[in-house]
Amino acid sequence: MLTRRLRAVDDQTASVVPSGRLLQLRPDQLKPNPNNPRRLFDPEPLRELKENIRQHGVLVPITVYQLKAQEKFAILDGERRYKCCVELQDEGLQIRIPANVVEQPTKVAGLLYMFSIHNFREQWELMPVAYSLRVVMRELGEDNAIKLSKLTGLGAKQIERCKKLLDFPEEFQQLSLDPDPTQRIPANFWIELHPVLALYEQHLPDVVEELGRNGITNRMVEKYRSGGVKSVIHFRRILEAFEINEEQKSTLVNTLRRYVAEPALETREAFDGFLAPKRGRIQNAIKACEGFIEQLEKARLDFATEDRQTLIAKLNHVRNYVISLVDRLEGGDAADDENTS
Amino acid sequence: MLKLLNAYRRVAFEFRDYRPARVTLASIDEWLAQHERTDRALLLDLLRHVRYVGEVEARRALVDQNKAILGQLQRAGVPYKKVIYVQVHDAGSSSPVMLNELRDAAQLIQRGCNFVDSKDVAGIARLTERLGDGAIIYVDDFIGSGHQMIGARNHMMQYAIGSFSEFALAVCICEEGAYDLTKLGVEPRARYIHARADRPLHELGTVFDAAKKQRLIDLCAAIDKKGGLGYEQMATMVVLYRNAPNTCPRILRGSQGQSPMKGLFPRTTDLPVSD
Asked: E strand or H helix at A199, and its extent?
């Protein structure tokens, strides 16, 4: 799979060249990759792997390259096996790790390797992923989400989220890069704010003209910092209010104007009033989900033969719709806090 | 009496360029006078185990170690223009000052080396992307537990693009910090690796007999019950001309605000706020 991905791009920029050496290395001869986006490891599979290694040793060689001017080898692939071996060594077990030595990869090859071999992507922090993706986009001149998804193994939706992040000027991105997590603006803030800015552009061009897109963004950052946005997910309430309140559009637009003008105006305080009368629709949707499954179960379709193809097509249609709706509803990264106070 | 006076003079001379508070015959006398007469010889004995690093020695240590790293990099085919020096910027940190001194003394700008602050993550992303590979050298005067440097390094390296060898360059690195840095693949380089066994008040220190050691530990605890032996109970004995590390025992640093107990080597943050 990886080979296919790497072949998909220019060989000169992306290939990882084997050196033909297989070494038996101690864990202390290895350097974990510092920009491994997969920083959180699921403890249970890790424990199983560790026990397996304790009994049988490392069976599948890891992939490493020699660092310049250092004795250590940097890990390209095999971080989990390395992590287990370090723990086993700390427990007093003498352990050697078979390692395929490759040439130092190019920038893009290194990045694609990182993207491709780590498949628990929901655990990745979004900002570093976005920065790495930007390099891939720049180096390969590719910004099509589907093609990038094929190259990196990231979901098309995650690529869109990264692109939204990168859409903000660097001065704003910097706010999500602060080493101090208490000062850092979560990456999700920008993703959730993105469509709200589009609302301003669509409905309040005079405000955009006066403050500029960056000026509005700055005000939202101030609002977030002062507690006027208690959770970044609350930005969706603004979008929801616009989506379901066609008849109150002018009142809503005025509220949107006040929302940027008054730093103390909290999101829910401003927009929940537009949502309350329509709250029944969510309950209806929940009931519809329950009723839908109940009816299908009642119909006992497991061995259905009549109109089977039509049924499959319809169910696929439902599935695709549901997946896309769930995607839209979920959003959010595990790593980003919601700042619910 | 003459022996004692000579001991005072030696101490005052050795520590003469300590910046946060001048060390003089009078300040040594004042420091000792706060303690029981029976403890004073022990305290003077403790002072003999302070590893003081003056300005000239600190600069020379950095320049020499840096020269060795650059030589190593040159031999491995890493040119100067692919070397990035990083200052680990935190409140009260000596890192920017040390890097400035090293930069000038080792003519790093003229050589084409690069400089970046560990907080400037976007700058690091840009620079590493441009260079593709090379070496990163983190500079500070003292690395204790290594927590501060490792935290800054781990955060910034998430954004580094390409392949970089990493070095931590300091005048002194404690055994604990050196171990953790090595584990991450950051090669520690220092004039002096401060072993735990070399620290008289450390749990593993064997410099003093048990009774003397306990008495000094008690004196530290009387000043600060929890943090008497410094951050993480490291009880380090290195004092640099710019500041004593926060891992230094309280008996040498004195109370926070220097009251009720004055220290011989107060940290800048230990000093009382002047009007």
From this structure: helix A187-203
Contact A14, A56 (CB under 8 A): no
Compare CB distances from B162 to A28, A107, A127 and report the shortest one's residue.
A107
User: CA-CA distance, B186 to B92, in Å (whole number)?
Assistant: 23
Summarised one tens digit per residue, pLDDT across range B58-89 is 999 999 999 999 999 999 999 999 999 999 87
ipTM surpassing 0.90, yes or no? no
> What is the C-alpha to C-alpha distance for residues A330 and A320, in angstroms, rounded to an integer?
15
pLDDT tens digit sequence for A71-129: 999 998 888 899 999 999 999 998 999 999 999 888 888 888 877 765 544 455 788 88
Cβ pairs A/B, distance under 8 A: 88
Q: 3-class DSSP state for residue B171?
A: strand
Q: Which of residues 115-144 of B touch A (CB under 8 A)?
A: 118-119, 121-122, 125, 129, 132-135
| A-chain residues near B121 (CB < 8 A) | 174, 177, 179
Residue B58 to residue B35: CA distance in whole angstroms: 32
Whether the CB of B71 is below 8 Å from some CB of chain A: the reply is no
Nearest to A327 by CA among A131, A154, A158, A77: A158
Q: Provide the CB-side half-sphere exposure for A10 (13 A, CA).
A: 10
CA dihedral B8, B9, B13, B14 (to 10 degrees): -50
| Structure token digits, residue B177 | 């910090």
Instruction: Name the token pair of B160.
Output: 């580094």
Q: Which residues face B143 on adjacent strands?
A: B173
Are the C-beta atoms of A139 and A93 separated by less than 8 Å?
A: no
For residue B261, give the 3-state DSSP assignment: coil
When scoring B73, B124, B128, B161 by the number of chain A Cβ atoms within 10 A, the one with the most, hence best to mutate, is B161
Burial of A89: CB neighbours in 10 Å, binned 0-12, 13-18, 19+: middle
CA–CA–CA angle A231, A236, A240 (5° rounding): 145
Please report where in the chains the tokens 């080597």 appear, as a residue.
B265
Cβ-contact B245, B230 below 8 angstroms: yes
B177 close to B145: Cβ distance less than 8 angstroms: yes
pTM beyond 0.80: the answer is yes
pLDDT tens, B2-21?
A: 677 787 788 888 898 999 99
* Cα A310–Cα A312–Cα A316 angle in degrees, nearest 5: 115
Give DSSP secondary structure letters for B2-50: HHHHHHHHHHHHHTTT-SSS---HHHHHHHHHTS-HHHHHHHHHHHTT-
Distance CA A133, CA A152 (A): 8
Residue B201 vs residues A177, B43, B184, B238: alpha-carbon distances, Å: 40, 12, 29, 13
Q: Where are the beta strands (DSSP E) in B175-268?
A: 186-194, 238-240
